[in-house]
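Quick illustration, no need to memorize.
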Amino acid sequence: MARKVHTIFVCQSCGYQAPKWMGRCPDCGQWDSLVETSQEPRRATGKRISCPSPMPIDQVSIHSEIRIRTGIGEFDRILGGGIVSGSLVLIGGEPGIGKSTLVLQVLDRLAQKGLTALYVTGEESMEQIKMRASRLGVGSSELYVLAVTSLEDCLDMTSQVNPGVVAIDSIQTMYTEELSSAPGTVGQLREVSTKLMSFAKSNNTPVFLVGHVTKEGAIAGPKLLEHLVDTVLYFEGDSNHTYRVLRSVKNRYGSTNEIGVFEMRDTGLTEVGNPSHLFLQQRPTNASGSVVIPCLEGTRPLLLEVQALVGSSPFGVPRRTCMGVDPNRVSLLVAILGKRLGLELGDQDIFVNVTGGLRLEEPASDLGLVSALLSSFLNRPVDMDTVIFGEVGLAGEVRGASRPEMRLKESVRLGFKTCIVSKDTVDAEALPQGLKIIEVSSIQELYEILFT
């Protein structure tokens, strides 16, 4: 007897299921995201995985995690010191930003160390992969290439090669024969990712998944992918520029919000060892509205230049354009300046930009943003040898920031002479040599020090 097939509509963003089509998903609110999908009863495999018996937590043995270093310092830093055996890593980014290039280079480095690597592609042929490999200088005999889209065929070939690391490029092209839906749908992504996770854990083999990013900036497909994997890495930056930022937004085996900076060249991605110098090397001389802020990205201190442009608005409604910072935070700081200093910027056009393509999210950047806004509004440049950081409260008070010693050491290393911070932020014994510390308790004191 033929099996009965049901038709349902599944949201491609959150996985919500409905018996009929709707223009808007009632769960996540996305428009035109429900796609018709045929659903048939799953075939019973007859196999059950043995379940371990429960045991007291104080009797559970802990094995030290084994990390595999790739030799690419920036990549190892993002993962927390190297690849953890049996981990499932998702790498996302816009088309053409360098996901496949990075994965191919990482596998080649591991293959050169004697580890068998398998690169599975569902988008390109083996000849196309060979052409890219020749351009990148990739040619290790321990690096195997497989062009399939069926997960069952992929796992069969994997058992023959017995690799030490596997990469799937991309997860949206893979499908399992147990489901009749098209590749890339919610059901296929869920099943394929679950089976790959089971393969990684049972064989203690790290697996890399390459995922496409939609125009909204999220991994194509449901958010369940991010919950299944152990690590999520996002490529940031403009594909028209040479520099790329790889950010860790989830890591079960290391610190989150770590970043790695790479430069795209003809021979592939090259790691940038001193990103602070890179972001500041084209800084203008004695320009108003330009301020350097020492920030923290994970465990790494970075010096970033924030630029502000404040001018009279020719329109009835002033414009607020912010790139790299939260526009709501900028509006809040403008309101604080108007209330506490009497400087009304509400009728001014305000443009704020963080150079280098990074994003300032920590509150410690508030004092630097206030300084940049004041500098542009008064047309008075801030000393180029000065760095500024601290959190600004609604009363105009300046609060301290976390790990100030790391920020100050990075500032001294790049040649800055003065730092403006909140009071009682830094221990006098921990101050680096050659740096003058100016402590302020409010934005009124900041205004008097910089512009009076």
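The first helix runs from residue 73 to 78.
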